[in-house]
Amino acid sequence: MSSEPLFMNVVNGLAEMSPVAKTLGWKFIKYNSEEKEVHVEFEASDSLANPIGCIQGGVLSAMLDDSMGPAIYITMPQGKVAITIESKTNFVNAAYPGKIYGRGRIAHAKNSIIFTSGELFNEAGDIIATATATFKVFPFEVPDSTWKKVS
Questions:
Q1: Which one of 50, 66, 75, 90 is most buried, counting C-beta atoms within 10 A?
Q2: C-alpha–C-alpha distance, residues 122 and 92, integer Å
Q3: CA distance 144 to 123
Q4: 108 φ, ψ to 5°?
Q5: With contact defined as beta carbons under 8 Å apart, do 114 and 137 qualify?
């Protein structure tokens, strides 16, 4: 494994992404270090839709978590983990299977607590949902055997 943040090992294909990220169709797009903002993309499959054909709200909340968390993890050194301890989602418009774009940023960090915010957009640029979340940073060593190397 590289000495870069573990998140970058996933982005660079040195480690496999989580099963949840795969299910959500997660893809890293870019990081704006000045704004501490991550841009990601999701390929929302039909399997994530509710009976009326919209992406289920809990799935959108998971997408927001997978937009805000990377804003922390992209610069977090190895040996630490940030766990979501609170999250609030506001649903603005219905989301449908297809591409959904996420943006997550660090709003404030103090000691071991990090406050984030994020948004989801459809392909037309319309807002789907917004969220805020609080993360707590803990020491955590990931054994090499936990990460499946990508061949």
A1: 66
A2: 11
A3: 38
A4: -165, 145
A5: yes
Average pLDDT, the chain: 91
Q: What is the CATH number of the domain that holds 61?
A: 3.10.129.10
Q: Provide DSSP, 22-89.
A: HHHTEEEEEEETTTTEEEEEEEE-GGGB-TTSSBPHHHHHHHHHHHHHHHHHTTPPTTEEEEEEEEEE
Q: Which domain holds residue 34?
A: 6-143
Whether 149 maps to a domain, the answer reads no
| Alpha-carbon gap, residue 132 to 124, rounded angstroms | 23
CA nearest neighbour of 90 among 123, 114, 53, 57: 57
pLDDT in tens, 48-106: 999 999 999 999 999 999 999 999 999 888 888 999 999 999 999 999 999 999 999 99
Of 134, 70, 68, 126, residue with least CA distance to 100: 126
Sheet hosting strand 37-44, strand order edge to edge? 26-32, 37-44, 98-110, 113-121, 127-139, 80-91
Element (H, E) at 21: helix 19-24
